[in-house]
Design goal:
This protein has 487 residues and is an alpha+beta fold. It is built from 17 helices and 24 strands. Helix 4 crosses helix 5 and helix 5 crosses helix 6. It is elongated and about 70 Å long. The structure holds iron/sulfur cluster.
Length: 487
């Protein structure tokens, strides 16, 4: 269904960002706050920090962007040298503060704080089981399911064994930062679907979804947390201990992190995201290059792809042909369909001298619903482009994501039941080509079997418990005004 939403709102929506720190002497709150700022692109609905001062937990969780969620007083009250943080986009659970994270709970053998990036595929089953055992839930998110299961296991086992037991029961994608009393730990699911890395900071250590958070703190990336690994940050920020709790033959890294979600300046699973995007752009030229007067990116998502494509094309002009108004977005009110359709003109303006009377290659990272691509082609035609050839730095998205990415429902995906030629016709381009799956694997330095490619093949690395419980039913999506989307 065409909602008229444009640009970022048409694309997949970011998931969540998690962070955890342990210092010798320094308070954790401010480093966590800055790290969450660095991860803001991974979730804009709510932000939260939980710290521990050696005696008790301190928590502040609020709706909104990081800069709005914390006042100086809030940060002052978050005492202690250890803590975890979270920025959230709701992939499971409701669009309200009860699902904001970190989730914290006190139980018989101490306190737990938990930040989760990902989506469990068996949360419903586990929730019923725990409810039958007397656990009462305060939210409908899957993070609380993990917290209750872990709390239960901690009554009978030490920390490492309790985490291992919980990992044996939860299925799906998860990168977690956990605070058990004043100990901070990080866990990555056995397939490594979601990213998580370790960094060294001045006087301590950090766990974060992306290395850009470590850079922001002037830290040094140590390495990625391995799939199935538990990392426990030592007290006093003196180092970390590693426990390989689960091993699998194959991983299932989400290739879309490199294509779309992660910051270009992050290193994920050993690859700088910016370089990966340029590499995908180069392969795009090799697979489906077309001679045109100019190559231009869809801002900002297509820029790194377009620079790689233009480099491989040798000698072709690389220019900006569309200018983005960065101030239109969350706060701009667009109550009617007409006004929403107008939003593309408010957000983007063609640079007429780049496109008028010329043949154009327009590069983007992906096409989800096709709404935006159609509007961009119209804009460029109105600005006088003679031919418009679209090249996409990822394969066609043919199926939804069940691992925590708000991709769109199957019915909304333009490539779910259309050929490339039918899509080309619908968006109005003169030609259209996508990158092949093999090229993605090759550029990311992985074999196909070690990547999650569910949204481009329809084959997932996990058994999906019940497709009907997924996004089509009650999963909220935020539009570009920060409001629940109406489609
Ligand atoms: S289905 Fe697609 S978006 Fe979802 S985890 Fe797999 S590769 Fe990533």
């Amino acid at each position: 269904m065409d909602t008229g939403r444009a640009l970022d709102a048409d694309g997949p929506t970011e998931k969540c960002g998690v962070v955890g720190v342990s210092f010798a002497e320094r308070d954790a709150a401010l480093p966590l706050y800055y790290s969450l700022y660095a991860l803001q692109h991974r979730g804009q609905e709510s932000a939260g920090i939980v710290t521990h001062d050696g005696f008790q937990q301190h928590s502040h969780v609020a709706m909104g962007l990081v800069g709005d969620a914390f006042s100086e007083d809030d940060l002052d009250a978050l005492n202690g040298p250890t803590g975890i943080g979270h920025v959230r986009y709701p992939t499971s659970g409701g669009l309200d503060s009860s699902c904001a994270q970190p989730f914290s709970v006190s139980f018989k053998s101490g306190s737990l704080g938990l930040s989760h990036n990902g989506n469990l595929v068996n949360a419903g089953e586990l929730r019923s089981e725990l409810e039958n055992l007397g656990h009462a839930f305060t939210s409908d998110g899957d993070t609380e399911v993990i917290a209750h299961d872990l709390a239960r296991n901690l009554l009978e086992a030490d920390l490492v064994r309790a985490v291992k037991r919980t990992m044996g029961r939860i299925h799906g994608s998860y990168s977690l930062t956990i605070m058990h009393d004043d100990t901070v730990l990080g866990v990555r699911d056995p397939e490594g679907n979601r990213p998580l890395c370790i960094g060294k900071l001045d006087g301590g250590y950090i766990l974060a979804s992306e290395s850009a958070a470590i850079d922001t703190m002037d830290g040094e990336l140590v390495r990625d947390v391995r799939p199935g690994e538990l990392v426990v940050l030592r007290e006093g920020g003196s180092g970390f201990d590693s426990y390989q709790l689960v091993e699998r033959e194959n991983t299932a890294h989400c290739f879309f992190e490199h294509v779309y979600f992660a910051r270009p300046d992050s290193v994920i699973d050993g690859t700088l995201v910016y370089e990966a995007r340029r590499g995908l752009g180069r392969r795009l030229w090799q697979e489906s290059g077309v001679d045109t007067d100019v190559v231009m990116p869809v801002p900002d998502s297509g820029r790194a792809f377009a620079s790689g494509y233009a480099e491989a094309a040798e000698g072709v002009e690389f220019a900006e042909g569309l200018m983005k108004n960065r101030y239109v977005g969350r706060t701009f009110i667009m109550p009617t369909q007409d006004e929403r359709e107008r939003a593309v003109r408010l957000k983007l303006n063609p640079i007429r001298s780049t496109v008028e009377g010329r043949t154009v290659t327009l590069i983007d990272d992906s096409i989800v619903r096709g709404t935006t691509s159609n509007q961009l082609v119209d804009l460029l035609r109105e600005a006088g482009a003679e031919e418009i050839h679209m090249r996409i730095g990822a394969p066609p998205i043919v199926a939804p994501c069940y691992m925590g990415i708000d991709m769109a429902s199957r019915e909304e995906l333009i490539a779910a039941d259309r050929s490339t030629e039918e899509i080309r016709e619908q968006i109005g381009a003169d030609s259209l080509a996508y990158l092949s799956i093999d090229a993605v694997a090759e550029v990311l330095g992985e074999v196909r079997e070690d990547l999650c490619l569910g949204c481009v093949t329809g084959e997932y690395p996990y058994d999906i418990e019940d497709e009907a419980t997924d996004r089509d039913v009650d999963r909220p999506r935020i539009d570009d005004q920060g409001l629940p989307a109406d489609d």
